[in-house]
Amino acid sequence: MKKTIAHYVSDLSKGIKALGIGLLAAVLIALPIIYPKSYVMGVICRMYMYMILAGSLNVINGYSGQFNIGHAGFFCIGAYSEAILATKLGLSFWIALPIGGIMAALIGLLVAMPTLRLRGTYLAIVTLGFSEIIRLVALNWEGLTGGPIGIKGIPSPLFFGFKVSRSIHYYYIFLSLAALFFFITYRVIHSRVGRAWLSIREDELAARSLGVETRFYKATSFMYGAFWAGIAGAAFAPYFRFISSDMFSLDEGFNILSMVIIGGQGTLLGPVVGSIIVNFLTEFLRPISQYRLVVYALLIIGMMWLRPQGLVGASNSILAGGVVKIGRHRHTPTGAAAASGAASGAAPKGGR
Amino acid sequence: MDYYISQLINGICQGSIYALMAIGYSVVVGVVGLVTFTHGEVIMTGAFAAYFAFQFFGNNLLLGMVASFAASSFIGIFVYKVCYEQFFDAPRHISLLLTIGVSMLLKNLTQILIGPNNLPLLGVVENKFFGVGVVGITLVQIIVIATVISFSLLLFLLFNKTRWGVMLRAVSQDKRAAALMGINVRATTLAGNCIGSGLGGIAGMLLAIYYQTLIATMGGSAGMKAFSASVLGGLTDVPSAALGGFSLGIIENLGITFASASYRDIFAFIFLVLVLLIKPEGFARKRGGVRP
Fold first, then answer.
1. Could you tell me if A126 lies within 8 Å of chain B, comparing CB atoms?
2. Cβ neighbours around B287 below 10 Å, total
3. Exposed, middle or buried, A179 (CB in 10 Å: 0-12/13-18/19+)?
4. What residues in A contact B108, CB-CB < 8 Å?
5. For residue B90, what is the nearest residue in chain A, using CA coordinates?
6. B162 to chain A, minimum CA–CA distance in Å?
7. Which terminus of chain B is more exposed, N or C, with fewer CB under 10 A?
8. Per-residue pLDDT tens for A154-203?
């Protein structure tokens, strides 16, 4: 096939993109060497962790259009799994990490199961209740979770015999986990599964009529999100060295939710932007930390009034009240979404 | 056996509070047509309003009720203005997230203004005990049950015997048709929202009197229970919601005879999940209109 100018341009833009990602990776990898201040490293570690948490919540809320508002519950399961396995059984971090994720995913399936046939509201209240229940169990099951005292002295992971103990070392763990998360999520979102998730968000009825097994894909989306929240929790436990049930309150779930909303639901970049902004705010508001959640609440309300698609979302997104128009989204990966738009015509969305 | 009977009575009493919360919730959801997550905070506001009324004006129950109804209705107006008024035609998740934002805001503002600790509320009702054979009941329990029953009756009369009630029911069934019949839909929706919120506030006062304590974070589990109970009626049917509240209270109090009392809130969750598994659309007859 003869190459046209358009091909060269697209090759060039691909090259620029690859170069950009490479440069970003180099800067992020070199950052601890350039600026090895432990306070800054700690803040950035937390930012990476919240990027995974907000990103995984975004897969559930933003991409497949469900409502999970108790994400802290899965975070909690991951953290407690890792902590219990590491302190009681002496299991290595690298084995306990995926187990934490798998535990969260399995429990996520159990939580999502009763509401798969229903509208998102029911899932919202079930996840809200579940998050509170998990905290209660962690608080009261003293034999396993240490009760109100929590679990202390969670051992640091060993990396080929090298003890990972300082923030700078954890920086690389969190960086690689976040990079892995975004890489896999990017691939999943641009696969058949991701298109199915998007089609459920855009119009569940149309998706089902086009042969998308909506219950299966809703469950997988929920499990995928819960899995990564569990992974984030399992990485958090040894980093903080101590966990207790009050770290995983409903407020923590709202905190994660506000990151997704501020950044923009249904975009890969949204949770990144959201977690950076919210974490900066957290540091900035440290002298008046009791007002922190009031500020987040006002931000959520403000965002919903002024820019419901979030800072980086597109204004024609269905999350902003837009309607999918036929033939406008051809080049986007949301082929299924465009198809569902075609199937339902210009029917009003969002259950008017 | 005595223990179980007394737990059953406790269950009925608590269940009646849950029933009032659920009635309020169903009225709000039915009339507005959008699901709310602020009901727990509305209940909490009612409890605190009653607390301050008792502090400043003495232990007058009637005054407490007026205060909590007024305060919660005011919060209801605030919620309506912020979360619903502009968003009836927008995608549902916007108003849903707005109610979550407002509930966060109210909870944390209360925590800052009043403090994060439990406040005691003692001696509002005399500590009297009436015993008939093995059945014993306290004065507080009688007052709670009587209040709930009278408010339910009032609501029933309002809904079924007045012009206002017909308007409220019409709006909850079909807003467009109601508008065509010359009903002021916005005003009626606002009024229904205020009534539902006010009932939630009175339930909050009863909760505070019954437990003799109140805390800024009480809204979380209260809202959860209101929701769980009203799921029985598909979130909008008032009588089924009341039934759901009673069964929830009884299940809870019989449940904690087998498990520790610190697991109390788990039973509401199990109840919710069971109802969703068995009959997710609720047990009420469908009477048209929106399903939130």
1. yes
2. 12
3. middle
4. 251, 290-291, 293-294, 297
5. A321
6. 29
7. N
8. 888 877 777 777 777 888 888 999 999 999 999 999 999 999 998 988 88
Token pair for A169 = 């070392």
Cβ burial, residue A102 (10 Å; 0-12/13-18/19+):
middle
Residues 6+ apart with CB under 8 A from B136: B6, B9, B129, B130
Would you call B93 and A318 a contact, using CB atoms and an 8 Å cutoff?
A: no
ipTM, two decimals, is: 0.86
B216 to chain A, any CB pair closer than 8 A? The answer is no
CB atoms within 10 A of CB A334: 22
Q: How do residues B50-88 score in pLDDT, each as one tens digit?
A: 999 988 888 888 898 999 999 999 999 999 999 888 888
> Distances in Å between the alpha carbon of A284 and those of A291, A292, B138, B156, B255?
11, 10, 52, 52, 46
A157: DSSP letter: P
Contact A132 B224 (CB under 8 A): yes
What is the largest distance, in Å, between two alpha-carbon atoms of chain B?
59
**What is A42-344's CATH number?**
1.10.3470
So what's the pLDDT on residue B42? Answer: 93
Question: Count H helices, E strands: chain A?
Answer: 14, 2
Six-digit token pair at B211?
Answer: 């437990």
The per-residue pLDDT for B289 is 46
- Identify the burial level of B134 via C-beta atoms within 10 angstroms of its C-beta, where 0-12 means exposed, 13-18 middle and 19 or more buried: exposed
Q: Hey, are the CB atoms on A350 and B91 less than 8 Å from each other?
A: yes
Q: Provide the whole-model pTM.
A: 0.84
- Nearest-angstrom CA–CA distance, B38 and B196: 12
Which of A94-103, A260-269, B56-65, B237-246 is predicted most confidently?
A: A94-103
Tokens (6 digits) for A299: 């931000």
A52 touches A228 (CB < 8 A): yes
- The residue ranges of every structural domain in chain A are 42-344
Collect all residues of chain A within an 8 Å Cβ-Cβ radius of residue B216. none
